[in-house]
Amino acid sequence: MDTHLHHDHNEVHLQSSDMLRDIVIGMSDGLTVPFALAAGLSGAVDKSSIIVIAGIAEIAAGSIAMGLGGYLAGKTEQDHYNSEVKREYDEVDNVRHKEIEETKEFFANIGLSKELQEKATEEIVQDKDRWVHFMMKYELGLEKPDPKRATKSALNIGLSYIAGGIIPLSPYFFIDDSTAALKYSVIATLLCLFIFGYFKSKITGINPWLGAIRVTLIGALAAAAAFGVAKLF
């Protein structure tokens, strides 16, 4: 009898989910905000050069602001984890009996018998570091964050914002008349929003076609509102 385990089943998991989330955040705002700004200005000025200057300024400011937000979020996550680790070490040292009961409770909740609960708990509490790591993961549901996460997040979001923002602005670089440039900007941006919404929804498990339509409509409505307000005033 062949008792060896055969790994014929390959599980496919989404890798680098944090990076994908950053790209989604940066790209979605990068496509939408500069698009709405360019559309609004197209309703107020004739020269594309003014829109290009304003658009570049907005992309620069927006990418910095979004990147800073990602950096602060990453630092907050890291600070929270470090704070909880410190508290967990303190509880292991000072209220050891309580932590032992909580460890047993975890094993009970996953269906182990009382005998196995005792053995598993006795085994894991012998190593303080391993015990704390176990409690962080299974009691608090916290994974140790990447120490470079904050910087990576800032770069991912900021660069994605720039990449997204260049798309609606690009026709204004080549067409001097803002109204004519707006037509190409609308086509390019709505197409990109549709593609972006499709893949974003597919990754997150939502119906990709509905997600694509929803993202496209949001961008179109934002641009139309900005253009209408500029024309009105």
Q: What do you see in this structure?
A:
This protein is an all-alpha fold and 233 residues long. It has one domain (17-232). The protein is 80% helix and 0% strand. It has eight helices and no strands. Helix 1 (17-42) packs antiparallel against helix 2 (48-94) and helix 1 packs parallel to helix 6 (149-174). The radius of gyration is 26 Å and the shape is elongated. 29% of the residues are buried. The model is unreliable at 1-15 (pLDDT under 50).
Cα gyration radius (Å) = 26 Å
What is the average of the pLDDT values? 84
Q: What number of domains?
A: 1
Cα distance spanning the termini: 83 Å
- Uncertain segments are 1-15
Number of strands: 0
Question: Main beta sheet, described?
Answer: none
Q: Give the oligomer, counting copies of the same chain as homo and different chains as hetero.
A: single chain
Structural class: mainly alpha
Overall, the morphology is elongated
Instruction: Report strand %.
Output: under 5%
Helical run tally: 8
**Helix content bin:** over 70%
Order of helices and strands: HHHHHHHH
Summarize the structure.
The protein is built from 8 helices and no strands. The chain has helices at 17-42, 48-94, 96-109, 114-124, 128-138, 149-174, 178-204, 208-232.
Attribute tags:
mainly alpha, 233 residues, single chain
Topology:
Layout: H1 17-42, H2 48-94, H3 96-109, H4 114-124, H5 128-138, H6 149-174, H7 178-204, H8 208-232
